[in-house]
Structures are given as structure tokens and as C-alpha cells.
Recover the amino acids of this structure.
């Protein structure tokens, strides 16, 4: 059974508490992210912001944020944004493409911001659809450090072959 956790957490009156609950749920549901210190800072159907704690697990050989970690900061908020706009109870969402443009080295905390595309969200049918997303990645001073381009396949669960 697939569950739309956004539907079940939307009635939590405190935004801070709702983000904490969502962080814990995602850490359980996505074990890969558990030790990386990702935290939701803003969650809405139009924009998702994720920050990371600084730590040795996210660093590269020269002490900056690892390229693969920046890619994760680009993918994670885009997926959360999609899951708020297309119910995971009804649709399977899978990333099919990830491209990251690295603009500058990042030291310290990293922030990824995914926003609703400028065009309207596509209407879903019984067929699969493809949705491109862009996440901007910033350093602790607000400088743009990278841009992640992701492509997502959405398909009704009834059309998914096991």
C-alpha cells in the first residue's frame, strides 16, 4: 500500500513540527539519506528547500562538498516537490535523468531549492508522463554553487509492471 504522507501531515499546526515529522519519515523511507544530515527548511506545493549539515561524510578530497552529494541535494527537493503535487498513492515517481552543472566549490552548509516549473504542472493520464525539474544549489553565503536538472517519469501504479 502506498501512502501520501503529505496528506496525513498537512493538519499538523506547526510548520516546524511538520518538517521534523517529514524529515524522520524520509530518513526511514530513504535510508541512503539518513546519515547525510538533510533537513527540510521549507515545504510547500510550490517550493521545497533542503539544507545539509556539514560533515566529513559529505566532503571530497579537497574539503569541499562532494559532487555526488551536491547531486543528491539537487534530486531530493525536486522529488519532494513532485510528491506533493502528484500523490504517491496514485503515481510511481522515478528519476530517469540527472545532470548537474557545477559553478563553484562549496564549503559549509549546502541548500537546494526546487520550485514549481513556470509552466503548469502536466495533467496526468493513464499513460506515463515525463517532468523536467530544476534545483538551484547554494552555499552558506547564498552564492549559486550548482544547478541540478532532473527528469522524472510518473506512471499510474496500475500501469506499472512488476
Amino acid at each position: 500500500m502506498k501512502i501520501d504522507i503529505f496528506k496525513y501531515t498537512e493538519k499538523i499546526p506547526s510548520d516546524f513540527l511538520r518538517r521534523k515529522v517529514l524529515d524522520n519519515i524520509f530518513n526511514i523511507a530513504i535510508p541512503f539519506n539518513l546519515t547525510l544530515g538533510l533537513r527540510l527548511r521549507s515545504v510547500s506545493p510550490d517550493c521545497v528547500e533542503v539544507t545539509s549539515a556539514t560533515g566529513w561524510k559529505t566532503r571530497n578530497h579537497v574539503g569541499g562538498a562532494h559532487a555526488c552529494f551536491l547531486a543528491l541535494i539537487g534530486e531530493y527537493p525536486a522529488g519532494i516537490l513532485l510528491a506533493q503535487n502528484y500523490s504517491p498513492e496514485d503515481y510511481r515517481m522515478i528519476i530517469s535523468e540527472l545532470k548537474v552543472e557545477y559553478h563553484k566549490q562549496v564549503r559549509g552548509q549546502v541548500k537546494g531549492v526546487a520550485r514549481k516549473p513556470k509552466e503548469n504542472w502536466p495533467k496526468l493520464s493513464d499513460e506515463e508522463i515525463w517532468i523536467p525539474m530544476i534545483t538551484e544549489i547554494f552555499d552558506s553565503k547564498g552564492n549559486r554553487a550548482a544547478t541540478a536538472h532532473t527528469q522524472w517519469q510518473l506512471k499510474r501504479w496500475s500501469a506499472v509492471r512488476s
In short: The radius of gyration is 16 Å.
